[in-house]
Amino acid sequence: MTDTIGNLHVMNRAALTKRLVAGLHNREAVVGGIGNSNWDLWGAGHRPENFYMLGSMGLAVPIAMGVALAQPARRVFALEGDGSLLMQLGCLSTVAAQGVKNLVVILWDNGIYQITGGQGTPSAAARTDLVAIARASGIANAAWAADEAEFDALVARALTTDGPHVIGVKTDSEPGRTQTDRDPIRFRESFMRAMAEAV
pTM for this one? Predict the structure, then answer.
């Protein structure tokens, strides 16, 4: 487990999203934040348990928390970018206060607001450590993944131990290669049906 940003390996977000989805075998819910987090989740292969955020910046973690609270037997993942998390930074304190044991937040941190033009976020050049903020908010299981092997290990730990968990990943800025279908009603209905079925 890595406690600081220093010397982290920069990883590919799309490749890690595929690794994550391929390792889910118990109908875990995954909420993809807007932009690349969403597009990579779509590109990893649609599952009814995926919920694709379309146009609501910063709400992946709050929505995932709501699902996790409503479905305590189901692991729930939120895939969120650094810029989007900064929009709703207070959600980390709420997650900690609620003690959401089945929630896993994966933070893709490339240091830019990528889909709005590449402006730098406060996490650029390691000035703001969002994983340290998660720990300071009360989420003890918050760590940076130093490389792909540690990412896999942190995900495996999150699937088998109580959380909440935050896994921070320094990513490259490769744009998403696919775009999620613009069909929010279909996604809502599909996700609701999947959540109604037992884990």
Answer: 0.91
